[in-house]
Amino acid sequence: MYEQNKLHGKTVIWNGDSICQGSSRWGSWADRIAAKNELKAWKNYGIGGGTIVENAPRHQSGKARHSVSGSLEKMHEEYPDADYIILEGGTNDADLLGRIEGDAIAPRFGKIDPDDYAGEYDRDTFCGALESTFYRATKLWRGKKICFIVAQKMGLNLPTVKNRYAYFEAAMQICRKWGIPYLNLWDGCYLNPRLPFMYDPTRSIEENEQISMYKDGQHLTAAGYDLTADIIDSWLKTL
After folding, report:
1. SS (H, E, C) 139-202
2. What percentage of the chain's residues is helix, strand, coil (to nearest 5)?
3. Which among 61, 63, 113, 191 could disulfide-bond with 152, CB atoms 3.0 to 4.6 Å apart, if both were Cys?
4. The whole model's pTM is what?
5. Where are the alpha helices (DSSP H) in 79-146?
6. Residue 55, SS3 per DSSP
7. Helix (H, G, I), strand (E, B) or coil at 12
8. Dist CA 20 CA 30 (whole Å)
9. 44: helix, coil or strand?
């Protein structure tokens, strides 16, 4: 029954922001894929408000933000034999670190040197933190499946949306540099909160849950997670 299911019996770990984390009400990619494939073990390290970069501006409460880069060693300490390491993020980096249009590049965006594989990257910048994440992950989990997910379209304010996608384009460029497979849900699925039948800002979260894929223009409802989890599940089985 499971001969063709590459995920069955595997250990899968995740890390990212609120899109990866999901919620107790709507669930997540991780719990859907775990249930579907009878994994040996799994853990979702994603935390709402998290960034790729380390030492990002704190939450309004003063609490430090979760960092994918900064929590990588913890993941390896707890799951050194993980079969799949699935990373996601970039939205909060784009919102917190600044715009990168034209010549006005935010200082903490960083830069990508396609010929630099030395490992000495500035983890206080978005590009440096993601490069360092892949550099360390490929050493920590040698021979395992390390991959990255670009989240679905989100946001209603066009300048914000464009800036987020610019960060995602950089993330995909870094993935290509390091040979990290990535799934581009932004361009690869039809979810879009700017479509009125996918999100209606005049309705409550509960009302949107009944009629749409988005609860608030950014985060997914259960229906949104159902759709994207199926896409991710199929993609992971091709790696």
Report:
1. HHCCCCEEEEEECCCCCCCHHHHHHHHHHHHHHHHHHHHHCCCEEEHHHHCCCCCCCCCCCCCC
2. 40, 10, 50
3. 191
4. 0.95
5. 91-97, 126-140
6. coil
7. strand
8. 8
9. strand
Residues facing 147 on adjacent strands:
86
CA distances (Å), origin 66, targets 18, 135, 142, 143, 227:
10, 20, 25, 27, 26
pLDDT digits (tens, 9 = 90+) for 13-30: 999 999 999 999 999 999
Cβ within 8 Å of residue 129, ≥6 positions away: 51, 52, 53, 54, 67, 68, 69, 110, 121, 122, 123
Whether residue 166 contacts residue 100, with contact meaning beta carbons closer than 8 Å, is answered with: yes
pLDDT digits (tens, 9 = 90+) for 167-197: 999 999 999 999 999 999 999 999 999 999 9
| Residue 107 structure tokens | 């200082």
Are the beta carbons of 83 and 142 closer than 8 angstroms? no
Q: Helix axis angle, 158-178 relative to 126-140, nearest 10°? A: 40
